[in-house]
């Protein structure tokens, strides 16, 4: 099929899958893989082949860079003692365990080791697509592990291919290969990120900033490939550095454009990959003889089960070396947590790319025996990961009975109140610095207090919702309704008929507004605006509305800068998480864009 036809077909498949997935209550990746399998029954569509270099050099840098930008650095530092062995030692152990399974079923040792290197690493994109149901900390640990384990797998793959081609492998050469891959990959990522930083700090053009950000992952991957290092690790390191320095070297307009474009592009690439995985399974299944299918299905099942068992056992052995924070969990809670982490370790794009790379890697020196077997088993393991572990994960999470984690909400509320208070404290100094009159100063101060009150009310409402939920759960347990539970909390007086306090204030859900007992709220404000608009008593000799608007804009922008400065200070001190900072920064960016207007890109 022609390239344009394939593009339209894959796009339509992603569109239909996006529409159907919510209706059938399945994760979108699972639906797209099933669609890919169904499309593979059409002979012409089965011939659609994805070149391995497309995944490694086009898809992977973009997806890994975006996942790095949305990863918490604080979580990586806090759980580094978990992430490091899981992304290195576990990958090696999984690869050799899979190679052992291949040997049992009659695979050559070198071919079995290539297979092990292909299926050993859990995939960051699969984890990101299907792991949102996990507790925040576990999700971040899995995501960080998946971002860094690809480098280990690719080093193992290179060693296995060299063995298959008759190369001379010694302990010294393996050590040098590992050191070059990791140290070179980290260095390449740091160099490219530093060059990007120097360029970004010298421009304020939205287009220039976002083109630079787009080039960073590809440049990091290219530089790492030139020095024979890990391109995956280079992209991840560059992404983590850019995520940290981005608020200081990019503009609000460029960040809003990037936050809209990158998720959409990654969504399309992910969707295309899942569809192509289904097509690849059909293609390989039709290329292999019917007699060999049964044996390969058994190998696939054996490899899949082995990966799950090795991951669980490795976590058990690694547990004594983990840093403990907070109360010591019970043995049952630890076992359930490890079971969830085991099921959440799914395979995806990197495994498929490694399997498809086998002929390309050996084209100049002879073909490796068993290439079709490697691709079939790898694709089968990916399918089992997505079609079995994916639907099973929500049930496993419910079974684990993780406690509700409110840390992110608490940090968000703390950060909002802190930056609002700091902005109000600096308001007079900023107004004097920017030559803002008293009228505008008082107006902005009132807006600031209103925002602070809203943040406080939202925090109180969330805490009350937690108390109400616990009370409701207790009522269900006792099978008795709470006669005092009204679903609302009334502050400042009685809530019975004919209550004595005329200034009652009601806390509703977090998105509700605060309305006084006199009934004036949004409608009252509209009536006031209408009166001002039609009143004949307006003083037309007062200061120009344009001048007041300009002063108001200057002061608001200065306050946003102050809030952003305090917010980054909270991140630097480790008080709030990087993802919380990202959420609040997005809101500040929207407010700044609203004040400054949309940049003209022509």
Q: Outline of this structure?
A:
The protein is 75% helix and 1% strand. With 602 residues, the chain is mostly helical.
Which key terms come to mind for this protein?
2 strands; 602 residues
Any overview of this molecule?
The chain has helices at 3-24, 28-39, 43-46, 52-69, 73-78, 80-87, 89-104, 109-119, 124-130, 136-164, 171-200, 206-226, 231-249, 252-287, 290-318, 331-344, 349-362, 371-400, 407-425, 427-433, 438-478, 522-534, 545-573, 578-596, and strands at residues 489-491, 505-507. It is mainly alpha-helical and 602 residues long. The protein has a two-stranded antiparallel sheet with strand order 1-2. Helix 9 (124-130) runs antiparallel to helix 10 (136-164), helix 10 packs across helix 11 and helix 15 packs antiparallel against helix 16. The chain is globular. Residues 360-364 and 486-541 have low confidence and may be disordered.
């Amino acid at each position: 099929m022609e390239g344009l036809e394939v593009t339209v077909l894959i796009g339509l498949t992603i569109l239909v899958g996006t529409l159907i997935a919510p209706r059938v209550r399945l994760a979108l990746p699972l639906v797209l893989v099933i669609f890919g399998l169904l499309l593979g029954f059409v002979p012409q569509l089965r011939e659609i082949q994805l070149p391995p270099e497309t995944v490694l050099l086009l898809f992977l840098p973009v997806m890994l860079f975006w996942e790095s930008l949305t990863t918490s650095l604080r979580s990586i530092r806090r759980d580094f003692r978990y992430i490091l062995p899981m992304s290195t030692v576990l990958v090696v152990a999984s690869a050799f365990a899979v190679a052992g399974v291949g040997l049992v079923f009659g695979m050559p040792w070198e071919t079995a080791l290539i297979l092990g290197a292909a299926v050993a690493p859990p995939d960051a994109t699969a984890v990101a697509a299907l792991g949102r149901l996990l507790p925040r900390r576990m999700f971040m640990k899995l995501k960080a592990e998946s971002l860094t384990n690809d480098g280990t797998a690719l080093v193992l793959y290179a060693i296995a291919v060299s063995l298959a081609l008759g190369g001379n492998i010694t302990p010294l050469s393996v050590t040098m290969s590992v050191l070059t891959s990791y140290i070179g990959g980290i260095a390449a990522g740091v160099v490219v990120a530093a060059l990007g930083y120097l360029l970004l700090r010298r421009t304020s053009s939205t287009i220039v900033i976002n083109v630079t950000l787009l080039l960073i992952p590809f440049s990091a991957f290219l530089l790492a490939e030139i020095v024979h290092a890990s391109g995956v690790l280079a992209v991840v390191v560059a992404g983590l550095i850019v995520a940290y320095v981005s608020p200081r070297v990019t503009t609000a307009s460029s960040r809003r454009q990037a936050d809209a474009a990158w998720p959409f592009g990654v969504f399309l690439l992910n969707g295309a990959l899942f569809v192509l995985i289904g097509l690849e399974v059909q293609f390989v299944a039709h290329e292999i003889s019917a007699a060999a299918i049964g044996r390969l299905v058994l190998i696939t099942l054996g490899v899949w089960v082995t990966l799950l068992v090795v991951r669980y056992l490795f976590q058990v052995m690694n547990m004594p070396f983990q840093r403990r924070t907070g109360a010591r969990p019970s043995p049952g809670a630890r076992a359930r947590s490890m079971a969830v982490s085991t099921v959440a370790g799914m395979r995806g794009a990197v495994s498929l790319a490694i399997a498809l790379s086998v002929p390309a890697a050996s084209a100049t020196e002879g073909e490796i025996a068993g290439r079709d077997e490697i691709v079939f088993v790898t694709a089968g393991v990916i399918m089992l990961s997505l079609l079995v572990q994916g639907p099973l994960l929500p049930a496993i999470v419910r079974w684990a009975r993780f406690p509700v984690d409110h840390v992110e909400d608490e940090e968000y509320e703390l950060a909002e109140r802190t930056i609002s208070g700091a902005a109000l404290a600096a308001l007079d100094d900023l107004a004097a610095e920017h030559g803002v009159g008293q009228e505008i100063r008082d107006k902005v101060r009132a807006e600031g207090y209103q925002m602070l009150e809203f943040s406080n009310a939202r925090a109180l409402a969330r805490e009350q919702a937690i108390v109400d939920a616990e009370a409701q759960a207790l009522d269900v347990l006792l099978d008795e309704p709470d006669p005092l539970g009204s679903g609302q909390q009334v502050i400042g007086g009685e809530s019975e008929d004919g209550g004595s306090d005329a200034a009652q204030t009601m806390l509703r859900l977090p998105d509700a507004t605060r309305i006084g007992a006199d009934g004036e709220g949004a409608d009252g404000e509209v009536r006031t605006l209408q009166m001002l608009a039609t009143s004949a008593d307006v003083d037309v000799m007062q200061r120009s509305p344009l001048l007041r608007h300009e002063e108001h804009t200057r002061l608001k922008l200065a306050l946003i800068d102050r809030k952003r400065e305090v917010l980054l200070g909270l991140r630097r001190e480790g008080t709030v998480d990087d993802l919380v900072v990202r959420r609040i920064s997005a809101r500040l960016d929207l407010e700044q864009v609203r004040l400054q207007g949309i940049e003209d890109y022509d």
